[in-house]
Amino acid sequence: MARWRDGQGRLTVRGDRGATVTVPLEIAASYRARTKGLLGRDAVEGALLLTPAGSVHTFGMRMPIDVAYLDRRLTVLAVRTMRPGRLGLPRLRSRHVLEAAAGAMAGWGVGVGVRVEIERENGAETGAETGADG
Fold first, then answer.
1. Closest C-alpha among 53, 80, 57, 56 to residue 68
2. Which of 26, 88, 98, 128 could form a cystine bridge with 73, CB 3.0-4.6 A?
3. 96-101 and 65-70 as β-strands: parallel, antiparallel, unpaired?
């Protein structure tokens, strides 16, 4: 299937009570986009997906962020809130990292075991590993 590419999309989280939350998503798949991430920003609208990624840091960031580690099937392995100037521990099965403003993920229902869906701007839907590397 197609590889992940830098761009825009939507993140959908389906809650256990039937509630669905959809937020804007920025996809950072290139080395340059992943390296820049949220550095130098004062805020983030929606979320940022880093792919491939197994760990992150918040050196040079201006705000605390929520970090969700996702496996190949886009299932959440762990969620952490990181203050600026921190180094996150690598997650062995992590293939993607989702970043958002601190506190946002709890409000969206993102937690361990939840499987998220990603729809790229071109309309391609990703419910599992359809685009990273195989």
1. 80
2. 128
3. antiparallel
Nearest to 38 by CA among 67, 12, 17: 67
The burial class, CB within 10 Å (0-12 / 13-18 / 19+), for 130 is middle
126: which 2 tokens?
Answer: 């990703």
Mean pLDDT of the chain: 86
CA distance linking residue 37 with residue 55, whole number of Å: 12
Model pTM score = 0.86
Q: Which two tokens stand for residue 74?
A: 């886009």
- The per-residue pLDDT for range 56-93, each reduced to its tens digit, is 999 988 899 999 999 999 999 999 999 999 999 889 99
Q: Which amino acid is at 108?
A: W
Contacts of 33 by beta carbon, 8 Å cutoff, 6+ apart = 6
Burial class (CB in 10 A: 0-12, 13-18, 19+), 20: exposed
Within 13 Å of residue 130, how many CA atoms lie on the same side as its CB? 11
CA angle 87/98/17 to nearest 5° reads 130
- Tell the residue number behind the tokens 């992150």, with chain if given: 56
- Coil, strand, or helix at residue 15? coil
